[in-house]
Amino acid sequence: MTKVLVVEDQPSVMQIVRYHFENEGFQGVYAGDVEEAWRLLVSENPDAVVTDIALPTADGWTLIEKIRNDGRYHGTPIVVLTGLQEPEVAERAKKLGCAYLTKPFAATALLNKVKTMVKENSGTKAAGAPGMDMQTHRIDLVPVGVVVLLDRFALEGTIYMPPELARFSDAWESIHRDPRSFFPMTNARVTSIDGGQLVAAPAFLEVSKAEVNAVFPVDVAPQPPPPTEE
User: Fold this and answer.
1) Angstrom distance (rounded) from CA 213 to CA 149
2) Per-residue pLDDT reduced to its tens digit, 181-219
């Protein structure tokens, strides 16, 4: 089943897109802003992205450029679906390797673009085009529960690893062998290094590997030292 990430902050447009995608048998995941879209991109690993440009906080170009600059996802098919009809918008979409549709849109046009781009992307991966970096391929990541120790904080949550790295019993070895500079973590709990005060509980983080001192599976994580008697 084709999975599509739709990024749109207008509920009426989102409902229309959802209706047509679900009728076509697509699995949709939906976000209203760039931050939520990136979290879903990492956790859901969709086959394609459909995004508006005018979004709250950061615009759709921010998301598209982040996708294109990330080796894990930069080959992901993207359709720009926007009410902006200026020629420079279409040109910028083309330069970023995106299809372009304006609102109001024909459902058949959107569906056909997504189907065609996903099919072409799948064909390219299957052919193993010469010189193509394997990191541009879509990778099904494996969730692993870990505790990550930084200088001042401990992070407990779920990280997402390529399958071949998730097989290692040593969580730190898996992180060490991972070529990514950052790795995604969801359901994160941030505590002080002694296991005490809860500092924050964000739903999604990107952790810099350079800042990591140690990594442990959740079931073998070191326990905080017992309190000393005064």
Assistant:
1) 6
2) 777 788 788 887 666 666 655 667 778 888 888 888 876
Domains of the chain (ranges; CATH) run: 3-127 (3.40.50.2300), 142-220 (2.30.30.100)
SS (H, E, C) the chain: CCEEEEECCCHHHHHHHHHHHHHCCCEEEEECCHHHHHHHHHHHCCCEEEECCCCCCCCHHHHHHHHHCCCCCCCCCEEEEECCCCHHHHHHHHHCCCEEEECCCCHHHHHHHHHHHHHHHHHHHHHCCCCCCHHHCCCCCEEEEEEEECCCEEEEEEEEECHHHHCCCCHHHHHHHCCCCEEEEEEEEEEECCCCCEEECCCEEEEEHHHCCEEEEHHHCCCCCCCCCC
In 3D space, the residue among 56, 46, 105 whose CA is nearest the CA of residue 80 turns out to be 105
Number of residues in the chain = 230
Burial of 95 (0-12, 13-18, 19+ CB in 10 A): exposed
What is the β-pairing status of strands 48-51 and 78-82? parallel
Rounded to the nearest 10 degrees, the angle between the axes of helix 60-68 and helix 34-44 is 30
pLDDT digits (tens, 9 = 90+) for 36-45: 999 999 888 8
